[in-house]
């Protein structure tokens, strides 16, 4: 049976790479983005395999319409890629509330909205997979990436519960934690907040890193697509899949540090029972 992939934020970066990979595998692909004209080049590769649909993940009406059009075209959806999103660089104090809320609306609530719209389809099919594109920043954070990490931490927390809820129904959940890949995240998809001098020493290096890595990232989005497909096809799909050596190393060190701190403070932590 041919697979059908439904991809949000498919006009560039990971989303476009996922679509192009799926086409080479003979899969059917539903590509979505806020601007339909940016999807034309993907649809032109294989019109018989691709359905392009305008979708702003912050618009519930467009979400419902996109799901309906996808089912009308291909009859089913096998994998949802919640990929639409963007980043922010700025200290917490430098990030206005409206910017934080807008980021959460897209990176978190947008993914939740599309997931909720597709869950009845997956339940009726008795199968399906949800791939939530997080980041190594969904496991840990750095000065200046607090807002972005908050959106990914939220997505990962929801995903853990969702995976347990859906496992008995034959539906998989995969959290993907990429490191630096050659996408637009550090370029047009990264917003830089106004700078406050007090944070130059802590957030300054993060700003420089974010600007400097644009166009120089070592990760290949096409290889990321293949790795995700392999994980989905595995008998035991992992809950989390780190992509890139930088992600693996960062998550490993963070986990080791967490365990060391846990051990160092264990006696204090457990000595909190009521004296009865």
What's the short story on this structure?
The model has no long low-confidence stretch (mean pLDDT 94). Helix content is 49%, strand content 16%.
Polypeptide structure, described:
- It is a single chain.
- This protein has 276 residues and is an alpha/beta fold.
- It has one domain: Rossmann fold, CATH 3.40.50.720.
- Helices cover 49% and strands 16% of the residues.
- It contains 9 helices and 9 strands.
- Helix 1 (13-24) packs across helix 7 (221-233) and helix 3 (60-74) packs parallel to helix 4.
- The model has no long low-confidence stretch (mean pLDDT 94).
Could you outline the blueprint of secondary structure elements for this entry?
Elements: E1 4-7, H1 13-24, E2 28-33, H2 40-45, E3 50-54, H3 60-74, E4 79-82, E5 87-89, H4 97-125, E6 128-133, H5 146-166, E7 171-178, E8 190-192, H6 200-213, H7 221-233, E9 240-243, H8 245-264, H9 266-270
Parallel strand pairs: 1-2, 1-4, 2-3, 4-6, 5-8, 6-7, 7-9
Helix pairs in contact: 1-7, 3-4, 4-5
Defining traits:
Rossmann fold, globular, 276 residues, two-stranded parallel ribbon, alpha/beta, seven-stranded parallel sheet, single chain
Question: Quick one: biggest sheet?
Answer: 7 strands, parallel
CATH superfamily: NAD(P)-binding Rossmann-like Domain
The helical percent reads: 40-55%
- Basic shape: globular
Mean pLDDT: 94
Strand content: 15-25%
Lateral arrangement of strands in the main beta sheet = 3-2-1-4-6-7-9
- Rounded Rg: 20 Å
Protein structure class: alpha/beta
- Work out the number of β strands: 9
The fold-level CATH name is Rossmann fold
Helix run count: 9
Name the poorly predicted regions.
Answer: none
State the name of the first-level CATH class. Alpha Beta
CATH architectural label: 3-Layer(aba) Sandwich
Distance between the first and last residues' Cα: 62 Å
Order of helices and strands: EHEHEHEEHEHEEHHEHH
| Count of separate structural domains | 1
